[in-house]
């Protein structure tokens, strides 16, 4: 449990199950036993490949889909069958869904208007909300007269105008170009921090998730794969799926072949040998071992280290760093990002040359084999 | 002007002349003839005398010389009735088509196509035949009354040759004309906007009046115009289902031309009808412009 949810959570989901009926008639599971709680003031990201159930989970929270099984609590109140318009939750839609026949001001003031807030108060709060997203003074424009980025901000202002307890964002940045997306990421994060509203943010972009979130929920096939802070998820992925989905990784299927007092040898299926600190590994135990590309270096590390040996297949200069593809003597492909290389080391990275890629033993992350 | 530009102009003129000719011949010329005739004196045995004679309009609008033509308020009454029946027709077709459009738009694609086919189906049969079918249904010995009789209700209800019969007939023939534009605007409606509306706290009722209705209004307006104008001048339905009791301006014009052989008066009535329609259209355009200007 995170530091946020120790206080009362905004949303709690227990054992959520949701099926869709496929056109052919059979049921397709979209959520398959989801447990999640989101604390007040927390930025939680739902991350997973397309079709993993992110949108479905958001729609369950906002009230556009009903759970087949399980429980949904918003602010400690059971909300399974409360209609969408009565939930203290707003959504920023991927398509923005601005009302094209209304001015920007009327769009932003909509939530206030339907609750019967008077015109004068509405006007000040619309101005505030637009100011918040940096669009002050655009009240009288029509959505069609704005750029994509501006429409995005209007959608945000519209959802924040009456300070909901929780804001849901379904891939809100995916339609923006890269530069705009990055500046919006920072702004959203800042806004969330300042307003103290809990955000549940959906993305399939792992970089975006790592940058913005307090916690990341990795989903696949309707299951939660892992919940954790960005560093937890990146450094200690719970399984091969998470390791592969977030960041680049070199994964080896290994079994513990030998061990002494402080190290253990891991033999990969291909025959590569890795060394790790002994910990409580049993000889014969099957595991997956993960090394991130940037954990390799060209020289023996200060700490206890070991190396993989092979031939360089390709070297790419990716700006400041070099990305090296190595084929080990046993035929495995290893990807390494070599940092701070003196240019005099470059000849060592020539394709075809033999190379040792060193790693610190305690950099190897071990994933226990999941029993089928 | 450079010669190049001059050549282009000539080319353009050449290219446009067939279209100009067709419009001039088939559109402007009849209008000019009608406008002229409406101000000429009717001949004693049909045809026209070439004298300026404003009393054709006077018969309707309140002045006449009292000898040849007389002012009769019945004409204004007929015009007003035409407006009333046309307006009710618009309302009734809307009442049928608006909910129907939503229902059709929600169907799977095959069903939608089938519904569109059903809507166009009546056009495969002659209008006259379809209206005679209504005569058979509505007349005293018709389908409705025999059914009622079979159910034990002995007093036949008088349906045919009433305003109700005319309204039934006009609603029936104009439903497809209302349905098409309304359906087009309903189908375009983005479901996600309705979700956004509910998400922001609007009840179904509020979503309807704040989102659905304003966004389908252009379709409703287009349908209303398309139905209103031909209803106003319609003469087939009132002739067949309204008889002599429910005279509308369309049938009056028809009578003047074909039966009374008073062409100038018929032309004057037609001109009045056209002016009324033009005023309606102009008002509509003005309202739309104001709408656009109002929100931006
Ligand atoms: N309305 C629907 N009817 C049937 N299947 C659906 C529907 N919506 C989503 N699905 C299915 O449910 C699964 C999860 O979808 P979704 O939540 O939209 O995924 P994501 O947002 O992560 O891409 C997918 O396999 C998708 O095909
Ligand atoms: Mg989605």
Automatic annotation (TrEMBL), chain A:
Output a single Gene Ontology CC term carried by this record: ATP-binding cassette (ABC) transporter complex
Pfam families of this UniProt entry? ABC_tran, TOBE_2
SMART domains in the cross-refs: AAA
Documented EC number(s)? 7.6.2.11
GO molecular function, a single term: ATP binding
> What's in the keyword line of the UniProt record?
ATP-binding, Cell membrane, Membrane, Nucleotide-binding, Translocase, Transport
The UniProt entry, under InterPro entries, shows:
AAA+_ATPase, ABC_SmlMolc_Importer, ABC_transporter-like_ATP-bd, ABC_transporter-like_CS, Mo/tungstate-bd_C_term_dom, P-loop_NTPase, PotA-like, Transp-assoc_OB_typ2
Tree of life domain: Bacteria
Q: Which reaction does it catalyse?
A: ATP + H2O + polyamine-[polyamine-binding protein]Side 1 = ADP + phosphate + polyamineSide 2 + [polyamine-binding protein]Side 1
Chain segments annotated as transmembrane: none
- Name all ABC transporter domain ranges: 11-246
> Which family does the entry's similarity section mention?
Belongs to the ABC transporter superfamily. Spermidine/putrescine importer (TC 3.A.1.11.1) family.
Chain's role: Part of the ABC transporter complex PotABCD involved in spermidine/putrescine import. Responsible for energy coupling to the transport system.
Query: Subunit notes for this chain?
Result: The complex is composed of two ATP-binding proteins (PotA), two transmembrane proteins (PotB and PotC) and a solute-binding protein (PotD).
Q: What is this protein called?
A: Spermidine/putrescine import ATP-binding protein PotA
Please name the gene that encodes this protein: potA
UniProtKB/TrEMBL annotation, chain B:
Q: Which Pfam families match?
A: BPD_transp_1 (PF00528)
> What topology does the record note for this protein and the membrane?
Multi-pass membrane protein
Q: Keywords in alphabetical order, please.
A: Cell membrane, Membrane, Transmembrane, Transmembrane helix, Transport
Q: Where does this chain mainly localize?
A: membrane
- Could you tell me the superkingdom of the organism this chain comes from? Bacteria
Q: Which PANTHER family match?
A: INNER MEMBRANE ABC TRANSPORTER PERMEASE PROTEIN YDCU-RELATED (PTHR42929:SF1), INNER MEMBRANE ABC TRANSPORTER PERMEASE PROTEIN YDCU-RELATED-RELATED (PTHR42929)
Family indicated by similarity: Belongs to the binding-protein-dependent transport system permease family. CysTW subfamily.
Protein name (record): Spermidine/putrescine transport system permease protein
């Amino acid at each position: 449990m995170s530091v946020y949810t120790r206080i009362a959570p905004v949303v709690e989901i227990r054992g959520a199950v949701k099926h869709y009926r496929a056109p052919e008639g059979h049921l397709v599971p979209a959520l398959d036993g989801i447990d999640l709680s989101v604390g007040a003031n927390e930025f939680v990201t739902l991350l997973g490949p397309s079709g993993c159930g992110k949108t479905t989970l958001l729609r369950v929270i906002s009230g556009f889909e009903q759970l087949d099984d399980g429980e949904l609590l918003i602010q400690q109140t059971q909300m399974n069958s409360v209609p969408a318009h009565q939930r203290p939750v707003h959504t920023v839609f991927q398509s923005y869904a601005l009302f094209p026949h209304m001015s920007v001001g009327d769009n932003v003031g909509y939530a206030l208007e339907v609750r019967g807030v008077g015109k004068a108060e509405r006007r000040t709060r619309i101005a505030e909300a637009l100011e918040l997203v940096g669009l002050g003074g655009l009240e009288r424009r029509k959505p069609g007269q704005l750029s994509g980025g501006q429409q995005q901000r209007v959608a945000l202002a519209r959802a924040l105008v009456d300070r909901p307890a929780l804001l849901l964002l379904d891939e809100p940045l995916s339609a923006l170009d890269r530069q705009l997306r990055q500046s919006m990421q920072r702004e959203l994060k800042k806004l969330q921090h300042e307003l103290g509203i809990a955000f549940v943010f959906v993305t399939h972009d792992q970089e975006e998730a790592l940058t913005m979130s307090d916690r990341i929920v990795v989903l696949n096939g309707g299951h939660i794969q892992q919940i954790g802070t960005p560093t937890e998820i990146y450094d200690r992925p719970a399984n091969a799926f998470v390791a592969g989905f977030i960041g680049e990784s070199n994964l080896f299927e290994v079994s513990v072949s030998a061990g002494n007092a402080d190290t253990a040898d891991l033999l990969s299926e291909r025959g590569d040998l890795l060394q790790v600190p002994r910990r409580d590994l049993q000889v014969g135990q099957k595991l997956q071992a993960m090394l991130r590309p940037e954990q390799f270096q060209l020289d023996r590390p200060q700490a206890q280290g070991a190396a993989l040996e092979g031939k360089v297949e390709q070297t790419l200069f990716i700006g400041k760093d070099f990305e090296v593809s190595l084929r080990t003597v046993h035929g495995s492909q290893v990807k390494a990002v070599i940092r701070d290389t003196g240019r005099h080391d470059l000849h060592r990275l020539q394709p075809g040359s033999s190379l040792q890629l060193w790693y610190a033993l305690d950099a190897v992350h071990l994933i226990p084999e999941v029993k089928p | 002007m450079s010669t190049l530009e001059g050549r282009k102009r000539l080319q353009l003129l050449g290219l446009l002349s067939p279209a100009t000719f067709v419009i001039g011949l088939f559109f402007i010329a009849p209008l000019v003839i009608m406008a002229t005739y409406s101000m000429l004196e009717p001949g004693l045995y049909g045809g026209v005398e070439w004298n300026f004679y404003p009393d054709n309009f006077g018969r309707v609008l309140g002045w006449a010389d009292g000898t040849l033509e007389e002012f009769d308020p019945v004409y204004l009454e007929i015009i007003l009735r035409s407006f009333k029946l046309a307006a009710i027709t618009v309302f009734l077709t809307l009442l049928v088509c608006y909910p129907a459009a939503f229902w059709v738009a929600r169907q799977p694609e095959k069903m939608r196509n089938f519904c569109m086919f059903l809507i166009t189906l009546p056009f495969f049969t002659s209008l006259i035949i379809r209206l005679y079918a209504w005569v058979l249904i509505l007349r005293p010995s018709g389908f409705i009354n025999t059914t009622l009789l079979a159910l034990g209700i002995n007093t036949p209800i008088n349906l045919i040759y009433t305003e109700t019969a005319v309204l039934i007939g006009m609603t029936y023939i104009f439903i497809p004309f209302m349905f098409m534009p309304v359906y087009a605007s309903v189908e375009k409606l983005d479901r996600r906007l309705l979700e956004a509306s509910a998400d922001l706290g609007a009840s179904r009722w509020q979503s309807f009046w704040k989102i659905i209705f304003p966004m389908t209004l252009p379709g409703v307006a287009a349908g209303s115009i398309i139905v209103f104008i031909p209803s106003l001048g319609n003469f087939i339905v009132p002739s067949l289902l309204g008889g002599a009791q429910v005279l509308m301006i369309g049938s009056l014009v028809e009578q003047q031309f074909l039966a009374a052989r008073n062409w100038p008066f018929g032309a004057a009535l037609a001109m009045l009808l056209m002016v009324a329609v033009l005023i309606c259209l102009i008002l509509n355009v003005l309202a739309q412009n104001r709408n656009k200007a109002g929100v931006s």
